[in-house]
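target protein:
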Amino acid sequence: MEASDPGYRLLCEEIFGPVVTAYVYDDAKWAETLQIVDTTSPYALTGAIFAQDRRAIVEATSALRNAAGNFYVNDKPTGAVVAQQPFGGGRASGTNDKAGWSNNLMRWSSPRAVKETSVPPLSIGYPHMEPDSPA
């Protein structure tokens, strides 16, 4: 379906299913359209951009950095591989890291390193502290 209003329900709400909604924008309004995409919805689960112009890809990736927890470039915006690829939405879509991905563990832990030496050193030598050897 083609929508002429960027505030149309299918463009703003999280709808799960085989639904495709297109919003046609004027090429001259590219930056304005990126802002509309970034601010129209309280949800930010998954998004994608399809483009051949590398500059447009870089600009969209930057402008939409908070618009989707999963962001795809020239690839289908579905099918994150759980436990192999980060997965999570932002804003009202979630926490940006879902269970099944190792980064989610960082929310629930306080990692630290402990180093123990059983025998105290008698000297500490570092190569840069050794006397210069005669040439």
User: Anything to note?
Assistant: The domain at 2-78 is CATH 3.40.309.10 (Aldehyde Dehydrogenase; Chain A, domain 2). The two ends are 81 Å apart (CA to CA). Residues 30-40 form the longest helix (11 residues).
